[in-house]
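Interim report, section 4.2 (structural modelling).
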Amino acid sequence: AAARDQVQVAGSSTVLPYASIVAEAFGENFDFPTPVVESGGSSAGLKKFCQGVGEEQSDIANSSRKIRDAEIEACAANGVTDIIEVRIGYDGIVFASQLDGPAYTSFTQADIFNALAPKVVVNGELVDNPYTKWNEFNPDLPDAEILAFIPGTKHGTREVFEEKVIAVGCEATGALEAMIAGGMSEDDAEDACLAVRADGRSVDIDGDYTETLASIDANANAIGVFGLAFYENNTDKLKVATMAGVEPSTETISSGEYPVSRPLYFYVKKAHIGVIPGLKEYTEFFISDEIAGPDGPLAEYGLVSDPELAATQAMVANEETMQ
Amino acid sequence: MKDNMEGRKLVDQMDVKFQTRDVQVYYGDTHAIKDVNVDILDKTVTAFIGPSGCGKSTFLRSLNRMNDTIPIARVEGKILLDGEDIYDPKVDPVQLRAKVGMVFQKPNPFPKSIYDNIAYGPRIHGLARNKAELDDIVEHSLRRGALWDEVKDRLQEPGTGLSGGQQQRLCIARAVATEPEVLLMDEPCSALDPIATAQVEELIDELKQNFSVVIVTHSMQQAARVSQKTAFFHLGNLVEYGDTDQIFTNPVDPRTESYITGRIG
Amino acid sequence: MKDNMEGRKLVDQMDVKFQTRDVQVYYGDTHAIKDVNVDILDKTVTAFIGPSGCGKSTFLRSLNRMNDTIPIARVEGKILLDGEDIYDPKVDPVQLRAKVGMVFQKPNPFPKSIYDNIAYGPRIHGLARNKAELDDIVEHSLRRGALWDEVKDRLQEPGTGLSGGQQQRLCIARAVATEPEVLLMDEPCSALDPIATAQVEELIDELKQNFSVVIVTHSMQQAARVSQKTAFFHLGNLVEYGDTDQIFTNPVDPRTESYITGRIG
Amino acid sequence: MSPLWLLILILVLAIAGFAIGRTRAMASVDDHRKLHSRPNYYGTNVAMLAFAPAALLLAVWVVAQPIVINASVSHLIPETSYEDAGALNLIMSDVKRVAEGLDVAVAQGALSAEEARSIRTEFTDVRARLGEVGVALGANVDRDVLRAAQAYRARAATGTWFMTAAVLIVALAGFFFAIREARGDFRARNRVENGILTLLITAASIAILTTLGIVLSLLFNTIEFFRLYPALDFFTRLEWAPSFSGRGGASALGILPLLWGTFYISIVALLVATPIGLFAAIYLSEYASKRVRAFAKPLLEVLAGIPTIVYGLFALLTVGPLLVSVFGNGGLLGVDWMGGGRAVMTAGITMGVMLIPFVSSLSDDIINAVPQAMRDGSYGLGATQSETVRQVVLPAALPGIVGAVLLAASRAIGETMIVVLGAGAAARMSLNPFEAMTTVTAKIVSQLTGDSDFASPEALVAFALGITLFVVTLGLNVLALYIVRKYREQYE
Amino acid sequence: MTDATHGTAEPAEPRRRKASLYASDAHTRRRNAAEKRFRAYGIAAIAIGLFFLLVLLVTIVRNGTPAFTQTFVTIEVALPADKLDKSGNRDIEEMKKVSTFGYAPLVDDALAEALAQAGIETPFANAKDLRQIVSASVAAQVRDAVLADPALVGTSHEFRLLAASRVDGYMKGRVTRESVARDKNISAEHLDIVDQMIAAGLVERRFNPGFVFGADASESRPESAGIGVSMLGSFFMMLVVLALALPIGVAASIYLEEFATQNRFTDLIEVNISNLAAVPSIVFGILGLAVFIQFAHLPSSAPIVGGLVLTLMTLPTIIISTRASLKAVPPSIREAALGVGASKMQTVFHHVLPLAMPGILTGTIIGLAQALGETAPLLLIGMVGFIASNAPASFADGFLAPNSAMPAQIYEWAKRADPAYYERAWGGIIILLVFLMVMNIIAIILRRRFERRW
Ligand SMILES: Nc1ncnc2c1ncn2[C@@H]1O[C@H](COP(=O)(O)OP(=O)(O)OP(=O)(O)O)[C@@H](O)[C@H]1O
Ligand SMILES: Nc1ncnc2c1ncn2[C@@H]1O[C@H](COP(=O)(O)OP(=O)(O)OP(=O)(O)O)[C@@H](O)[C@H]1O
Ligand SMILES: [Mg+2]
Ligand SMILES: [Mg+2]
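Predicted structure of the assembly:
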């Protein structure tokens, strides 16, 4: 078999747009061939990545979450030990509704929890969620039927949604306390907090944001969960909701004002650096200021650039691996 | 409508079943039947004889519009059944075929049980009110087809597993079961032994009491035995038609004579 | 190997073509042929007669192993062709069938042109060196099958578009074209008019100069005319086998007599 | 000689053999009619014997040689440098990579053949040299590895040499053997046909191999899954709710709601596709003019070629809202059965449309193949065309039609996109066909392409789902086979 | 109809005797009504099928046709030597050091210059703000042109540049002034400029060959994405599928239907095959990844692997349909051939197979259609994602070099955020369907030739 001459990347479909922008620019500006960026999910990408070291193995795994310990172990078992972790920036997670739909302007995490949790606190008591309209628990919200399209359990976004929205809301509304008071252990209660109602007002979307968008299109009152980049490309159809009064944007997210976001990563196999042509160059190019900086094409597309980019650049330059 | 009136006018004898006027049948460009005019009488057995390939089957099939199923076949002229033009657009070929039954030259049992083969016609025509009646019809028909004794123990076995002659009798029984007014039989005894042949001939005799039977046969003896009228076809033409006795003893056309005495084929 | 030796021992007369010993044929549980022992001679026409459904076709088909194609059929006993057991695993049924040709009871032309129907056998057996030779074979075979005059202008038309009798002759011509040593004919004249029948009988006569012919027929007259040996089957048993003259004039078994005189069927 | 060239060589030999065998057979008799088989069979026999065994040997050799050499070379690695078989394995893959790297380097001229044989880690940075030619190495090359790699190359070269010799010998042996056989009385046809039969059997066993492959590629991960997640829960739990937050066993991964959704949606799809497809087939083959048929049939087949994503969007944007406007709250019927556009019905109907050609086209061919004599027999009894079709033609065509419907059912079970977009992602066990449900297949895809930890039960469950679905459909197929056998009717 | 004109209601009489042929009795009328109903069902079935087809096709065509045209901006771009080739000796290696980031300002300036020449006022102080009018790919386009012909340096050259997707969307009516209000990628001022540029003939919408023949592009520049390369990927995969699935499928069917004696082993194969048809396609992807890539070490993302996986996936379809049509050939045909001394093999290949051909071809058509439109298994063998390879360099490369496939490309596009990709996805579907039709036409013609009744 002839030697492979292009960088092979696999993994998260959330990172894919950014990776493809970089790969394209890389192919245009370097003598190396354009890297191949496969999609298929963080899980599949990391699995491929951890399959082993060698020419037939992939060089980079894109991931919309941090690699897990179990995965690092699995990697090590296959001889993949030296891994460089590169954080490329943050992905903002926003709520948006139809352009002509009601305006959701004063959301808090508690509102979302009240709307979507199976059990909520009403008058200090934990009851089955009785709400059918938003203004039933928050008069500032529109008089509209509750219908939310949230990421399905396959998506990493769901985890962020659960932890940064639902869990926070659970605590804020006092539901967590009520559960513990009702005799649940703390762990169980935290678990129970994360559930969503199953009566059809909360709809899981296993597909992509385009599917959520199509669903929103068909339901005037509905709100959906999107990535910031996706929203910014579809302002002609979507109206974004504010969270705790803050409108999501690359600025508010990078400053931390807007609370719901998650870091995006890619992982590089150190053993391949220096042998796969262009690997190091691609890695450095990805996080260069020109690309990943606040004025680069990635930010333009919707990536919240990492304030600590310089540290990451230094780490890559030194090929520092995870311990 | 006009055709219809004309048709009715033509009926002068009450015992004429089929009248055909200038019938032509084409297969694509082949002219298989030419100018055939024949009156087939009721309560009579008519035999069609003639060398192989002369058009007997073709003509027979045009009497109950079975030629409709051959895309390239085309029938011209007029065929009247009881004075009504069977090619009239108003005529439902289904009803026609219920009246004019047919036994084909090649036995073609359905891939069903023997019982279902026979019961098929009565069922679709609603001839039986209940299962018992249907059983009766099946038994009666198989008996008439001289097959009952051979198959009475295996009525549920497939009809396709019968011997050639048995299949032929099955098809006869199947045709008889629907009680048609006219029965067209294309060489019904070709695969039968003399005894079975005799039984079928008996059946034909019995049928003619009430109905009209047309039979294609290659056996002069059989034609002479069972028919009252005989039509001799040659190369698509109806050469001679008349009383069987007369045809066999004193044919008018030299071709008929040659055929009967075994000189042309 | 042992079978084979034994087989050779059994050959005492040099002109025996087929020897069958205790042949049984079953269709599933049906015992269709029981204990048939018969010696079929070379350069002789043997007629199989018997009532419909008695097993003539079944036995005939077991002579060239056509029964192999019916999954439920099972043949037991020994059938020797020129002293060799044709059911021996070493025997290639294909070669056997090339030697022992067959005309089936129901005409079954290929859905191909008339020419290709005839030419198929010669082609696969490599009987013609070139197109001209093949043309010759086709013409010759069609002539022997008494069909040439009727189809010579339409050789490229499909064989399935022929009349019943024509199809039968086509199948005869097709079988003859491969020049088999033994020809098994299952009611070859059932759909033929007397003249065509006479021509086929002539062909049979001609064939017997060199080959062996076995013919199933329901016509006593035909059996008497063409055959030298006659076998009479009844309910799966070979009731009587002997010289045709003797069978027809002086049958030994009462059943044979009843059948020939038309009393049992 | 490289395997490819060797293959070409024996192919040439086979072609020559064909011509020679043919000629020889013809020359061996005075009249070619005396040949047992047609001359081409003799030629083919020679070609076959010259080619097939040699090619087979070549294939086996190409696969086996690395394994054998691997085993012999691994003895060169001192036992002190690894702890277990796994570690040795790793080292050996390094050896192979170095050996291949040296090959590449030689091929690219970065190293001379002599250098490749003799370089030493003490004097050369092998990793760097190989990196120059683009060969990925995991670590610096140590002395033993390089020595082993060099041995590996040497043995591989010897092996290739032997292979060339052996393959050529076998090819020539077959060639001459068959040439000698090419005589008039030889049963060439039987030999060739046996060869073809072998090919046919091989083709048929590919199905078995595929099955085996599927089972094996799912099995290990399935076992791993059941190590992490109790099998009893998986098979009996009525809830499907994978969780994300690393809460361990808190995920509910019961297959039953998924299986229920699979069958519900498939049945709706079949209820749509079978009657429409069957009636379309009947109309096309029995009633339609040649013209209409020639035009409508391929058009319907386009339905099978439209990418499923289009159907998915069609379900989501058109069928779903339409159904809601009929069955939903404030709909035409004034009932409130349907909450949202995503429902079993939505996906089922859309999938049914996609499956129409599976039923219609295949059935049409089968119905068309029923002999005309069957129809004639029925018409002759005064049956109408529809009676003929229903009672004679369809029963005769039944086995084929069942095959077509089964194929459609299979497709329905295996479909993802329409389910995800039409029926939703939520697993539910309900009888209401207007509720959202999901299928096993959809979940296999989503768990495989999701973001969860690949070593977690949430990701591994995809494999268990796959194998379970496999077993379930196997059972259904056995049942179908049994039923078809029972009702099979054969004409003529 | 007949019954209507002669509709004298006679009592239902089970045995019709001497009734006129012109008048049908009640029973016949009932049967004829059933007949008409039956026929109507047939017509209705076809009508339903064709109706859905029509709806789908109209949707596809309506959504997809805009993808075939694209908005272009035609301007002169000055290529100053001091920026592009500082050393001045036209050394390619040297010139390559200037990246697209270096070229981008040239295009900005050229735009400003062109506007000035056309007398269009811009509200922007900075030429860089004009960049949003043209595609992000233009810098690369100019750079490629310069590197291909270094003599251009120091001159001015006219380029036809792709307009940005927002501008294109404005031309196509997708982007409106209201929607632009909240869009950070373009502003109303840009649209004003574009309006004037149209008037000045600098901007035009024309057929876009790049869409049909080009390669994929990244998320940020939908205007330069094309389906051509993935079409080649599909083409090479279909070659593999056709070359393997058809012969193997037919061979397996022949064995099972004509030669195999019925025993446990053949039952096993039979059940296996129908079961394989029910295996979700993604599982074939798992198999392909394990067997072809990890075990056999074939390259990942390669059409050959995709072809092999799709072959395995298509086989059951072809086998099932082939077997059904072999079964439908009447036994008398086989007997006829065996009777003249044909071997079983000859019987099958000379008579049975040609008669079964229509069904085989139908299976092939449907199987290939399925294979051509399948995405899920490709996901696992690395053919879905951003694989912006160029057209394969050689025939062998077509099988081995990383490539995507049409359905994967469409699937990817459909997921992307920019609505311009949505239109391209539908456009891709049109091309996929055309590809499918072209592929099937031969089979359909062949099938018609083989069709006959006996
Ligand atoms: N395929 C079959 N399956 C089951 N039974 C069969 C099959 N073929 C023939 N039989 C039965 O075997 C017996 C002998 O049949 P065979 O066809 O040999 O009769 P035959 O003597 O040729 O009669 P005919 O003169 O009517 O052709 C009959 O009872 C028949 O029903
Ligand atoms: N389907 C067909 N297509 C074309 N020609 C046909 C078709 N059927 C019959 N013919 C031709 O029409 C002529 C008459 O055929 P027909 O079947 O009526 O003869 P027949 O008198 O019944 O002969 P037989 O006694 O042999 O059955 C023959 O020349 C025949 O070849
Ligand atoms: Mg006839
Ligand atoms: Mg018989």
